[in-house]
Write a structure and sequence with these properties.
Blueprint: E1 5-11, H1 16-28, E2 34-40, H2 43-50, H3 59-76, H4 86-93, H5 96-108, H6 113-127, H7 136-145, H8 150-159, H9 163-178, E3 186-191, E4 194-199, H10 204-211
Parallel strand pairs: 1-2
Antiparallel strand pairs: 1-3, 3-4
């Protein structure tokens, strides 16, 4: 078997479309011959750095996205459900504290499995259960549901407010911008020494072609990710 191709997924749990891409890539990490690297970033920083505007601020786009997410939730088999006040959840509360927490998790974990579990619980809260992801209590609840102890969570909350973690999040966000990001999800496939960036949760067929794999749909037979 040829060496695994590195695939980086730049993500932020405030983005519903990124949840779809996240679950698909987690399902395919043991199906395709890839090394999946989870790269927690800050979508707000990407939007600002690229000069992009959220599509939800355009009334017709917002109406379309609401219906589109219902269809996508069924297609991808992800329990995606819009919060009661999406504008508040995404733009007023945001995800800065949550993504700093995820970066702290990654800094302490041996591999990305814990990052995957914690990120999924945060997505569940905001995009399935209509719950907060900004307060220490909310972050603690998500992390403990992901199997972490209270003492581990306490240390991660402490770390998430340090300059080291803040700088790491900024650095990863800048890396995404350097790859040409204007939103998330951004998936970067490294092929023959060159990065091939893909934006969105609807480019998997093209991505598979690019890395010499086969797209088997949103639920391949071998699936390590359980919702």
């Amino acid at each position: 078997m040829s060496s695994k191709k590195v695939v980086e997924l730049f993500f932020d749990v405030v983005s519903p479309y990124t949840w779809l891409a996240f679950e698909v890539m987690c399902r395919y990490r043991n199906v395709w011959n890839i090394e999946l690297k989870l790269r927690p970033g800050f979508l707000g920083g990407v939007m600002q750095g690229s000069g992009n505007k959220p599509p939800g601020l355009v009334p017709n786009k917002f109406l379309y996205m609401t219906k589109d997410m219902e269809r996508l939730a069924q297609f991808f088999e992800v329990p995606l459900k819009a919060p009661s006040n999406p504008f508040e959840a995404m733009f007023e509360k945001g995800s800065l504290s949550a993504m700093r927490f995820v970066v702290a998790v990654q800094g302490q974990a041996k591999d990305d499995k814990q990052v995957e579990l914690v990120s999924r619980e945060l997505w569940r809260r905001i995009w399935s259960q209509d719950k907060d992801i900004t307060t220490p209590e909310s972050l603690s609840e998500a992390a403990m549901k992901a199997g972490m102890s209270a003492s581990e969570v306490g240390e991660l909350l402490r770390l998430s407010s340090t300059k080291e973690i803040k700088d790491k999040l900024k650095s990863t966000t800048q890396e995404a911008l350097d790859h040409g990001a204007f939103g998330f999800p951004l998936i970067v496939c490294h092929v023959d020494g060159k990065p091939e960036p893909f934006f969105g949760s609807d480019r998997f067929e093209l991505m598979a072609h690019c890395i010499g794999e086969k797209w088997l749909g949103p639920q391949p037979k071998q699936s390590p990710a359980k919702l």
